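Can anyone check this?
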Amino acid sequence: MRAVFSRAMAALLGGYAFTYAFTACLARLLPLDRVDSLLVASLPAFVVYALAVLWAFAARDAWRAWLGVPLALPLALIGFWPQLLEHLG
């Protein structure tokens, strides 16, 4: 029961965090105008979130279901680097 709850939280919260970071990173790296890159980066977000949910329930154990969350940190740093520098400086 606890493993199912952990997988569900990994799917919902971890998948959302990974998808949000992925979208921000992709929008930052695309060589388009700001609005166009945001629109283009938002389109694969639905697929990425669905794959994150599938990953959480297909993983061998509940610990591996949470492996996507640490992968979101470098993506979030790339995606939000200018805002982070503005906030710190």
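Reply from J.R.: I decoded it. Residues 3 and 62 are 6 Å apart (CA to CA).
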